[in-house]
Amino acid sequence: MEHPFAASPDDDRRAILHLDVRLHPDDRNLTGPEWAEVAHRLARAAGIEIPGKESGCQWIAVQAQPGRLDLIANLIHLDGAWHAPPVNTVRRVAHEARRIEQDLHLIPVRSEPLSRPAFRAALTASAQLATILTQLSDEQAGPLAAVRGLVEHTSHWIARQPGAASTDMAHRLELIARRLHAVQQDLDTTATRLVQPRAAPAPAAVGHNAHRSP
After folding, report:
1. Model confidence pLDDT, tens digit, residues 98-143
2. Ramachandran quadrant class, 67 (left: phi over 0; alpha: psi -120 to 50; beta: rest)
3. pLDDT tens-digit profile of 128-182?
4. Engineered SS bond to 73: which of 17, 33, 62, 211, CB 3.0-4.6 Å?
């Protein structure tokens, strides 16, 4: 009811918190209770779920794809008050994610060396590109999903028309829709790999014949 007219204490209107969790491609499949544990632990780390407090944020966790969980929270409480997240929310969520990896025996994310600014800049560029690819492949609001929906709708409409030509055209459109879906999946996989930190190049080793100071 308040969004998008009310402003937060920081004078912005970003009323939705979205956390997405993606497993490593080689990770095992988590069970339903394990996914539920991941959702609640990250919600508590982000400060949107406080044990014993019933008037906090309304949030849901959705698993629309294998190996991925989306946690979405409304930052405006039912009484109209805005949620005040912890100051160190990003660090808290990252720390809890590392703990979840250990507890559930998942493949850990390699830490980024803080002493390599160029490497951090490359990761930032990769994250920005990953964001664009994720938007393109979004199943709900992405442009490819919209195009695929139009193609599928046209295919179903043509399939109801009489004649062999209509059947052939409907089949061709179905194949196009499948290729578009494959492109969406490829983009989503690429976006996931882009945000996975890669190991920084090791410093050059000193040769054995190097002169040493006395």
Report:
1. 999 999 999 887 644 444 454 445 445 666 777 777 777 777 677 8
2. left
3. 777 777 777 777 677 888 888 888 888 888 888 888 788 888 889 999 988 988 8
4. 17
Helix axes 143-159, 164-194, angle to 10 degrees: 160
**Conformational region of residue 163, where left means phi above 0, alpha means psi within -120 to 50, and beta covers everything else:** left
Distances (CA, A) of 157 to 11, 46, 172, 176, 180: 48, 46, 13, 15, 19
What are the residues whose beta carbons fall under 8 Å from the beta carbon of 203, sequence distance 6 or more? none
Q: Is 77 exposed, middle or buried (0-12, 13-18, 19+ CB in 10 A)?
A: middle
CA distance 67 to 38: 12
Edge-to-edge order in the sheet of strand 16-22: 16-22, 68-74, 58-62
